[in-house]
Specification:
The protein is built from four helices and seven strands. It is of the alpha/beta class and about 170 residues long. It has a four-stranded mixed beta sheet, with no helix packed on it. The relative contact order is 0.23. It is found in: Golgi apparatus membrane.
Length: about 170
Amino acid sequence: WARVLFVLPAFEVRAGLRRPGTKAELLRLWGAGGARPFYGALCPRCQAPTDFGRWRALPPAPRLRVAYEAPWRDPWEPFFVAPARGVPPFDERFLQYGFNRISQACELHVAGFRFAVLDGAFVTHGGFKEPGGFHEGREAELGLNRRLFRRFREELRQRYPGSPRRC
């Protein structure tokens, strides 16, 4: 378990609605259009490895459990719980918008970590993220971080020379 990260499926909840406290409540909201997978309208690929369809179809469980392992795929941005020690620190060069969680997940993958999706736990964001709903400097920040990410991937090859994993 020291090399396993526990992924919390992430959702957006329509503004003005109460955030769900249980998976059953979340599933009802999702079915009624009041919730959806995080970044569902902006970057579905960024959360796709979580496999929301699979998570949604799981039979009810009496307690928190690991449901399945999800293989890392670029450009995944999982929300996760990690061990207190042994996890590479977040690269603080990724400021503002873009590639912050992608770079961290990429490094964790290259470092040999596995991603286990939890059932019975999830995180929510208040409001739907929509195109055009970002601050003015977002595109410039995204461009800077995109260039930094290219260098970052090369640095990972040097940092983990024995790893067969790439991103």
